Amino acid sequence: MEKAAQVGIIMGSDSDLPIMQEAAKFLQDLDIPFELTIVSAHRTPQRLMEYASKAKERGLQVIIAGAGGAAHLPGMVASITPLPVIGVPIKSSNSIDGWDSVLSILQMPNGIPVATVALNGAKNAGILAASILGSSNADILQKVASYKAKLEQQVLDKVQQVKEKGWPNSFD
Ligand code: RP5
Fewest CB within 10 angstroms: 84, 94, 123, 135, which? Predict the structure, then answer.
């Protein structure tokens, strides 16, 4: 039987999927059950209302919401659910330059926060969702720690490679 989703990944359009699948891939790699679907704040407002109001009772613990342009999806979801919402601003076909997406998600009114990642930063949204789950799940926290240790090692390997090319380094 499929494990119940802990993270809900939603996006305003299928055109957001090439970006949003980076969040899904990260969760997949860590074996964290998630679901992924389209919910549009403007084109399917009733679906948004239903998704956000049922998210907690369906067992979700974190929601990742991506949208571009007049990106109201993450903020509207956050206004309905008590769950943490991570917003992914997307540079979409209706974006001027991406700032519109960033500011639409970032500049929430007091009381209704959305944890906003960088433009097109869906992978970081996946990592943040895992960290949130990890704060009450030692197994997941360990996986996030291992991922970060791997990143550190990659940089240290590159330090070595740069050094071997003969660049002066009196630090290490
Ligand atoms: C937003 O409008 C979506 O999240 C997407 O980023 C953007 C463009 O949507 P499509 O016109 O490609 O469906 O609501």
Answer: 135
